[in-house]
Amino acid sequence: MLFCHLLVQEMPRSYGIHDSQQMVWVLNGNSLIAVPSSSNVNPVTLDLIACRDTEFQDEAKGNLVFLGIKGKGLSLFCTEIQGQPTLQLKEINIMDLYKEKKAQKPFLFFHDIEGSTSVFQSVAYPGWFIGTSSVARQPIILTQERGETNNTNFYLYPKNYNQPVISAANSRIKNQAFTESFI
């Protein structure tokens, strides 16, 4: 007799990321900056995982996700500094955030697809988006100015083999599943 047991294992998906000016994200101390892509630059790999808590879900704005820096135990979060929404890094693994029963709003982003690019909007600060300056070596920020002085649309490309490419046709994140057979 053959029994099949379906296990759903959620794991972060890992992506390289750059903006329309080929600026990639790099760690500079405990913050992220955007620099021109080149062979002597070591860009971060962005980990992305869907949030299981549906409290803040809004399909019109995109998928609810956590964002982290692969292999660094750092997650992106939004906080207010001197009255200004600000993007920060915090030492917490996105899998720890994922496993929490109730999601922490400052760590959540709406991930939406615009054409062939990805956009990340803060859940804690609606209307504020992750952005890069058109000037090199500037911090990755939260901005309300889309497409003016800041780039808020990013190209993602997969960094691990067992995941789909995020595209307009495949914009909804799906759980990875595998089947184990038992005899």
Describe the structure using short key phrases:
disordered C terminus, IL-1_fam, interleukin-1 receptor binding, cytokine activity, Trefoil (Acidic Fibroblast Growth Factor, subunit A), three-stranded antiparallel β-sheet, eight-stranded antiparallel β-sheet, mainly beta, IL1/FGF, globular, 183 residues, secreted
Provide structural commentary.
3% of the residues lie in helices and 49% in strands. The longest helix is centred in the middle third of the chain and has 6 residues. The N terminus and C terminus are likely disordered. It has 183 residues and is mainly beta. Strands 2, 5, 6, 7, 8, 9, 10 and 15 form an 8-stranded antiparallel β-sheet that branches. The protein has a 3-stranded antiparallel β-sheet with strand order 3-4-12, with no helix packed on it. Strands 13-11-14 form a 3-stranded antiparallel β-sheet, with no helix packed on it. It is built from 1 helix and 16 strands. Strand 7 and strand 8 form a beta hairpin. The chain has a single domain, classed as Trefoil (Acidic Fibroblast Growth Factor, subunit A), CATH 2.80.10.50. It is globular, with a radius of gyration of 17 Å.
